[in-house]
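Lecture notes, part 5. Sequence design as translation. It can be helpful to think of inverse folding as translation between two languages: the language of shapes and the language of residues. The source text, in structure tokens, appears below.
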């Protein structure tokens, strides 16, 4: 599964880790995160994320 980066603050969403505080379980693909989820670091919407090129 792909990692995604917030274009506002550089937070990286790693599907292997998820976002426990945001209610996103480990193993959740970015595409499967609810649309109302926001960046845990800066509060930007899911739209502010783009695939991380590794």
């Amino acid at each position: 599964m792909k990692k995604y980066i917030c274009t506002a603050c550089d937070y990286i969403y790693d599907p292997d880790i998820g976002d426990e505080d945001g209610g996103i379980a480990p193993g959740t693909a970015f595409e499967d995160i609810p649309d109302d989820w926001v960046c845990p670091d800066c509060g930007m919407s899911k739209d502010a994320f783009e695939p991380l090129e590794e």
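The translated text above is only one of many valid answers, since several sequences can fold into similar shapes. The first strand starts at residue 4 and ends at 6.
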